[in-house]
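I have been asked to look over a protein record a colleague put together. What it holds is a sequence and that sequence's fold in token form. Please read both lines and tell me whether the tokens look consistent with the sequence. I do not need a full report, just your reasoning and any doubts. This is what I was given:
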Amino acid sequence: MLNGKLFPKIFYSLCLLVILCIPSFADDVDDQALSAALSFTATIDDGNFQAAYWMGSPLLQLMTSAEQWIDKADRTQRILGKVLEREVKKLRTATSPAHFPDDEYRMIYFESRAERKAKAAEVILLHRVDGLWRVCDYSIR
């Protein structure tokens, strides 16, 4: 049996450990979402629009057909050129984005520079599918 003085110390130590681990877990989740977004954008940067479409979330594939998505991505890249640089400006949690069912999402805003667009904005919405973050919406303006 724990003596009366030891129990509070153990209890407070465990509480502190839990409090310190919560931000770390959130950071891990955000890092995973960011990694998925960067992998997706690298695939687009390489001009492999079909692979990007199929690595996306089933929600992306329900929103538009492969042909439409690939055509739009190809046309956008021909107009703006390839993205040369991107910097994360904001990463936030969303639970009810427009046109998507309520759930947990990550929205990532990049400030980007393309061959024919000095200042562009890329917005990526990710959704967790089977434990993995996958892109369900992508736009560049």
